[in-house]
Structure prediction request, 497 residues.
Amino acid sequence: MHRTPPTPAPSSPPSPRATAAALLPLLGGAGNVTSVAHCMTRLRVGLLDRALVRDEELRALPAVLGVVEDDETYQVVLGPGTVARVTPEFQALVAAAPTTAHDLAARGAAIKAAQKARNATPVKLLLRRLANIFVPLIPALIGCGIIAGLNGLLVNLAVLPSLTPALTAIASGFMALIAVFVGHNTAKEFGGTPVLGGAVAAIIVYAGVADIEAFGQRLSPGQGGVLGALAAALLGVYVEKGCRRWVPESLDVLVTPTVTVLLAGLVTVFGLMFVAGEVSSAIGVGADWLLANGGAAAGFVLGGLFLPLVMLGLHQALIPIHTTLIEQQGFTVLLPILAMAGAGQVGAAAAVYVRLRRDTSIRRTIRSALPAGLLGVGEPLIYGVSLPLGRPFVTACVGGAFGGGFIGLFNMLGDTVGSTAIGPSGLALFPLLDGAGGLDGRTVAIYAGGLLTGYAAGFAATYLFGFGKDAGLDRTTSPAPGPADRPAPRKAPAAGP
Prediction:
């Protein structure tokens, strides 16, 4: 008698340590790794010898959503949440591996070469450093932003009035002290003592500055915001480094911190706070003016250009602007518009899926990457679909432009839509929405309308214009092509935060 074999239970996702253990040999082993870091979605690994990486096997790992290369790092896209858990496990495995003298010498040479390459591109280095300062703050911005949105909803509905003051404190505490965290990270990034950077930046949010007059005006706590904190901490780094050069070692522990905080603090109080405050105000006024007067046209341009900015790494320059707007107004009006680039990307991928009916490989990639794309994680679709195909990347930008134009139009009509945090986009941005009417049905409807417009425009533009005259016909009527029949993926610079 034949027995039916039991149906195997579905396998659970690999643990972070198992994922790290699977990645390490495919990246050439611990001896090939010169640096390890991560951003919101990617494990960024510096490599000694790129030829040792087994790309195909690495891409086939269930946890890997895609890979990206730039001039400095090999980036494995793991997705939000996962990358934060895998990175420390990966670092632990690298640190635990036996290291030979040859490995150390090779790593030192690679680090020196990488440093030299970074110094040769000052603009790129500056943007990378800005990201290193602000990206670590994003989890707190997201958490506090969602709590702020929930609190606003409860206030509007007049529900749980005894709880809302506590939620207000929880949501606002971090933003009230964000300058301190920016100062800490700035000093750390530029080679100073982090706590001294935080100490100098803390002057900006101290209530007692209201008793100080500069440039004929009374200062106000928080004046200058994150830009002032960044400038103050950077000044503190230079003062500290100067002190280290001439202060005797026996007096360093007393003199250097005192002189650093005193000199940088005085310049901050009697100069930087005023100047940074004027710049911050100009950013807020400029963003409001742009959308109030540019409307759909401004949204169209911003939404359409964001994907190319991401590809060039220039989107990192917007992080301080977003943070300044959130600090000033409680939300950034730019992020919902820029998020439409992801909507255009989703629409373009859907069109590729429909047009290339016989290309099983790329359709499989789209099926696995589309859920992440809907939630605002666009790298798998960008590097797995639109960029390798070429034209769909351009038509995805068209979809983003129309989505951005939709939201820009409503901004011009007075229905401001903003985000209380940076980082998420797509469907994941809904809990962070805010605007002229708070988190109400109109704000949600406008953002949803922008997403639908981006999806539809990206789909239509890609379906109609995303393929050459023969490419679409051949690929949908011929047998399923293999990897050699598709264009090779293009090497592109880093795109994630």
